[in-house]
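Protocol step 4 of 6: structure prediction from sequence.
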Amino acid sequence: MLPVNLDIDILRSFALGLELGSFAKAADRLGRSPSAISLQLKKLEEQVGETLLQKQGRALVLTEAGEILLSYAKRILELNDEARAAVRGVGKLEGWVKIGVPQDFAETWLPDLLGRFSKIHPKVRVEARVDRGAAMVQAIDKGELDVALTWGTLASPRAEIVARREIAWIGPDGFRHMPGEALAIVAFDPPCAFRKAAIDALDRGGIPWRHAFASPSLAGLWAAVTAGLGVTPRIVEGKPPQLAALDPKEAGLPDLGAIELALHVAEARLAPPAEELKRLVLEAVAMR
């Protein structure tokens, strides 16, 4: 009897849906309908001969078999992506690449991506800069960076919007704002797109606020929220496990909408190493 081959596309849908916390979001990200993703998951269960997901309240959670498969799926997808990049005819790239990213990504998927890039292109030297958007736009203009990602376009003529992310209120699980009290906000000092989105939403809702804590580092913001100094507007990606993405209605807070993620490049035509890293970064952004 021939072995059953797992479908890479289905594994990607499976892994992405669990990473995003919603298969509907995965369908939107992958350009498929929710019903198509549902059919893929049924096919995956048929291929492995096990139930992978089960209902827990309104949510879907992994079964024991699902947890095992997810671990393998991530490894299979990583190897698949590495193999594709390695045979694209760019294995002999040489030179330097300078990239800038927000702190949210530097603490999540960037280290893994740079590690895989170095394996595929060992002759390319990579310099990574983690900074606030305004500083990275200046570095792009000066030629100190080849590629940068920022939250918002920052009025840069080089900016290209490549994705959008939902902004969430992050705070202690069960947090609820008391009407009439000034909401304590933990955020970067301006200019900060997250801070502005929060203040605009609070002002529209007539909710008083105060900037309770500022820090130049994202780790500092997480520490302040963990210590109970306030709540912070941020994307869920990279959220510490001890904090929760708050439901706005239950927390008595306004919805914050979405924020744009923009790509900046120093030159219209990048050198091959920078172009290849840019491509991988955009793929990583699209899959999250």
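Step 5 (inspection) to follow. The mean pLDDT is 89.
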